Amino acid sequence: GSEITVAFHADGRLDGQAGCNAFSGSYTADASTLFVSSLTATERACLDPPGVMDQESEFLEALMSAQTYVRDHNVLTVQYRGSSHGLVFIAQRQDVLAGTAWVLEAFRELDMLVLPVPGTQITLAFSNAQTLGGSAGCNLYNGGYALTGERIAVGPLSSTKIACAPEVGTQEARYLDGLQNAQRFRFGDGRLYISYHDGDAELIFVQDAL
Q1: d(CA 181, CA 8)
Q2: What are phi and psi of 31, to 5 degrees?
Q3: How many CB atoms lie within 10 A of CB 108?
């Protein structure tokens, strides 16, 4: 239930999220050594998930004590003073959704596939500015999104208010609810799968030929 990130910038700055608070500082590095200094963090107190503040303190102390690092493809291991272990990071993927456009092929709810209402088309396009939009089958919608690895967060969404036929309106509500509760995405067989409701449901898209 917590997430720790760090970004190393080319000008010697670093920043990220320590599980509760945001932090920033500076670093120097050569082929194998890493030294971190001047870390500052915001001062929020988080109660959830339990233990997150202790974890945050341990992480920041370890990062400040960094001595060496090893980078192996997309895995970065930082060894720090006083420990035989290390901080192990996995590189975040770039925004592989930006600039792509999709058409909904089906809803998956548990083990059942539900096809779109005949005569309707639901579309989803991702811009290069972490915004998305399209047609929900009757109304147009738009909003923001963020990726962390294979996790996706969407919203808030806004949409037009055209009155739809009852069946189309029900489908539109189902789609927008699924999109706003998106949790993970994956690619397979040329399709985009966006899962929600703890993986019990998915939106299945094919790439838009346009």
Answers
A1: 31
A2: -65, -25
A3: 17
Report the side by side order of strands in the sheet with 22-29: 4-8, 13-18, 22-29, 34-41
pLDDT above 90 for 2: no
Q: Which residue has the tokens 């609810």?
A: 177
Summarised one tens digit per residue, pLDDT across range 139-182 is 999 999 988 878 899 988 999 999 999 999 999 999 999 999 99
Q: Which residues lie across from 113 on neighbouring strands?
A: 108
Rounded CA gap, 87 and 68, in Å? 11
> What is the number of residues in the chain?
210
Phi and psi at 194, nearest 5°, equal -115, 115
- Condensed to tens digits (0 to 9), the pLDDT of residues 100-120 reads 999 999 999 988 999 999 999
- Residue 10: phi, psi to the nearest 5? -65, -25
For the whole prediction, is pTM greater than 0.70?
no
